[in-house]
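ASSEMBLY PREDICTION REQUEST
Request ID: AP-0331
Submitted by: J.K., bench scientist
Number of chains: two
Total residues: 226
Priority: normal
Notes: Please return the full assembly, not individual chains.
Input sequences:
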Amino acid sequence: GAGVSQSPRYKVAKRGQDVALRCDPISGHVSLFWYQQALGQGPEFLTYFQNEAQLDKSGLPSDRFFAERPEGSVSTLKIQRTQQEDSAVYLCASSLGGPTEAFFGQGTRLTVV
Amino acid sequence: GNSVTQMEGPVTLSEEAFLTINCTYTATGYPSLFWYVQYPGEGLQLLLKATKADDKGSNKGFEATYRKETTSFHLEKGSVQVSDSAVYFCALKFDPNAGKSTFGDGTTLTVKP
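STATUS: Completed
Returned structure:
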């Protein structure tokens, strides 16, 4: 597709359930980022990949959060044993790398009940 | 640590009014500064950027000047349109080759005809 695609767009999970959020970056984009956006707040950095290498995961809030990009294209953000405070919009962005512009997907809205 | 503080919203203006959305930052060093816009139902889009002091970023009639002395990057537009209604985010980034951006909490702008 022409842009960054995220799926699902909406996810409702029961507390304690595991979830997997998918990001399809723009074809050929080397860099991929995940952000978490709570209601009424700006995006907070979670993690960053360059190709398949996870270069920065300093923003992952706990060891329940795990991200991977095994072939340097599609990425999955996994959250284990979801808790209510995990409710947020999860944004994915990709870029050609270096100082080039990052393009954002529309996000996945996760609601933990 | 690094942080971005934006003018609280929401901001409501009439068409053709002058817009200012304030943004100040706290950082050790000299980051690059950005404004992103999120239109209803869409992902974040880069609006403009400035990479060093006194640089002016501009796009679609919007402007912002990187002011090192006041650590500010205020967004301005001389005459807003209904189509400018969106959420605007100020952000900073230190390393243009790395992923991590720090965002403000966003300012919602509504322009009425």
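REVIEWER COMMENTS: The mean pLDDT of chain A is 94.
SIGN-OFF: pending second reviewer
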